[in-house]
Amino acid sequence: MAERGQAGVLRIIGGQWRGRKLRFRAARGLRPTPDRVRETLFNWLAPSIHEARCLDLFAGSGALGLEALSRGAASVRFVDNNTASLARIEEHLASLDCARGNCQAGDALRLLGKEASPFDIVFLDPPFEQGLLEPTAQALETGGWLAPEAFIYLEAGIREAPPNLPGNWQPHREKTMGDVRFSLFVRAGQFV
Fold this sequence. Notes:
Number of domains: 1
Order of helices and strands: EEHEHEHEHEHEEE
CATH architecture: 3-Layer(aba) Sandwich
Radius of gyration: 15 Å
CATH topology: Rossmann fold
Number of strands: 9
Strand order of the largest sheet: 5-4-3-6-7-9-8
Oligomer: single chain
Largest sheet: 7 strands, mixed
Number of helices: 5
């Protein structure tokens, strides 16, 4: 599914590239995070985004990671199993003259089984209704992918049952817009 509103176009909401429109190719299951949801999320993250190391799993159009970079994130690693989507993100990074983003093709859960590097902010926006949030959350926590007080963003369809998350992920903010439920968690210390 293409972007809600204007198909095939992603608009950066704030920061250095505010107002820039980036085209992406439509792909099955691709539904970039809507503008209003991104605006709310990045208002929540405003005190923490500057110089943050971010991981955009299930990157799709790259909407979340590109917005993070525009707002001053130190780096973003984009991960997706669709190589065409990643190639488009690389084109966007080049057009924005941004060397702070890098793309990694592959399955997110397989990646999380490899050697970890902790991130300050992780964006989890997997395809809806495929049961990916829970195993991905557990792999992030147990694999050493999260900084001690990392923020973890989760996006899901409103019809999906809430996943069982690690006990040390504390709810920070949550909201529903249209058919999307989105939440921001903060990691508190060690896994419980």
